[in-house]
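In the design runs reported in the main text, the only information available to the sequence generator was the tokenized backbone. The following block is the verbatim input for one such run; it is reproduced so that readers can re-run the procedure and compare outputs position by position.
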């Protein structure tokens, strides 16, 4: 009888201790969520300085090609290019500040203020209330470092559909692709004909390559050219890993390129 009585007394005590421990843990989690560790904020743990690029929605044009340069001395430059309108790109310069959590920067130029949430190699433009955009166009407000990294570099083709590419297969000439933000066009070459067309990038490194013009020469070995042309028509996103550019369709690697360090 005494043993039963002790057990009945011990049970509520154990439940009380468990509940107190659970509440304490939840309180700690809530405190951590509401008060992020400043040592692990974007400001302190990410290489946030660099060049970010994307095309944000525009009410009366095809889009606003936006390039943001963030410097470690808390200064910035933003270049806006209104696509489809006969106006020159214009620049905005000034200083930026961080919020108390170290995850958002506000760019100030005169009376103009624009805020961005800082992620891993991305800037997400926020609305006037400091919130992320919502709706079908939300992803278009994300600027990416990778969107800029692919530009103005001559990417040498080294791997195509899982096979190593050698110059003997491209008539001893270097196969490559090059992207230019001048009218958003690319040029590709695989030893015989030059291929070119328009391209666009979006958040998440999405990529669309338009098949434009090509010279019409007939060459002895055009296998690599035909395969590269097919890759350009099917690739839907890309990755930049150091000096390597990877074109992909879904999770399938289609082609791999390398470029010198800039």
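Verbatim output:
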């Amino acid at each position: 009888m005494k043993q039963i009585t002790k057990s009945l007394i011990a049970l509520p005590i154990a439940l009380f201790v468990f509940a107190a421990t659970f509440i304490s843990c939840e309180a700690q989690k809530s405190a951590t969520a509401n008060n992020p560790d400043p040592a692990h904020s974007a400001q302190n743990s990410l290489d946030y300085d660099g060049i970010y690029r994307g095309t944000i929605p525009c009410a009366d044009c095809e889009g606003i090609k936006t390039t943001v340069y963030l410097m470690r001395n808390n200064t910035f430059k933003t270049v806006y290019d209104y696509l489809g309108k006969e106006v020159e790109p214009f620049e905005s310069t000034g200083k930026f500040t961080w919020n108390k959590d170290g995850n958002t920067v506000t760019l100030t130029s005169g009376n103009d203020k624009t805020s961005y949430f800082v992620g891993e190699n991305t800037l997400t433009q926020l609305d006037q209330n400091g919130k992320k955009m919502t709706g079908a166009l939300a992803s278009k407000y994300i600027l990416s470092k990778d969107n800029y990294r692919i530009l103005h570099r001559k990417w040498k083709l080294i791997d195509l559909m899982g096979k190593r590419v050698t110059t003997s297969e491209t008539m001893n000439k270097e196969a490559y692709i090059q992207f230019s933000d001048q009218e958003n066009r690319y040029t590709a070459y695989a030893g015989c004909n030059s291929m070119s067309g328009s391209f666009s990038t979006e958040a998440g490194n999405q990529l669309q390559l338009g098949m434009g013009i090509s010279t019409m020469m007939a060459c002895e070995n055009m296998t690599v050219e035909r395969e590269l042309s097919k890759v350009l028509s099917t690739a839907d996103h890309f990755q930049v890993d150091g000096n390597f550019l990877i074109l992909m369709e879904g999770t399938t690697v289609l082609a791999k390129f390398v470029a010198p360090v800039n």
